[in-house]
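User: Please write out a complete single-protein record containing the residue sequence and its fold in token form, without commentary.

AI:
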Amino acid sequence: MTSCNSENQTESNSNSKNRPETVKRKTILFFGNSLTAGYGLEDPEEAFPAIIQQKIDSLKLPYKVINAGLSGETTSGGVTRINWLLKQQIDIFVLELGANDGLRGLKISQTKRNLQSILDTVKARYPNAKRILLGMEVPPNMGGKYVSDFRVIFRQVAEENNIPFVPFMLEGVAGIPELNLRDGIHPTGDGYKIVAENVWEVLKKEL
């Protein structure tokens, strides 16, 4: 959720050389900020989209994962960026944005509108694509009302669009020092293993 990292939009190709291409693979696009990009990790294969690709490969499922995480991205930035990424066919779209909005104290109503705009854009371009929303929370120091209102918008957006939802993608990781980098925000490799499981529990039902 920092702006230090450059854009990371690379396909996770773990084991791809050994995978028979007898069935055309569908595409899962993870669209997010540094939490998706894997900010601060020495090995990009430790980011949760790459871990999920490894799970998919181990199960021999016909899906390829694209990591479209960009460090520092806000929901407003996502609205601007999404059309470029939709030039390629998308079968499953996983939206992970909003954390930077919260850390900057941006208007919650605007964050909600932006999340909806991104989901609408995906639906308009690929009506049959499945969409999944990853929920986020902000630290208590943002103030009780802001924290509560921020948490709620993700569930509201998921319910209004009738799409699968991960209530808090950092469940079991946030606030645990040994599972986060020194900044206390971004997960370590071990932390991302838990994040991947949180996301996988919802994603696997859509494959």
Observations:
- The first helix runs from residue 34 to 37.
- Residues 2-17 have pLDDT under 50 and may be disordered.
- The beta strands are 8-12, 26-32, 63-69, 92-96, 130-134, 165-166.
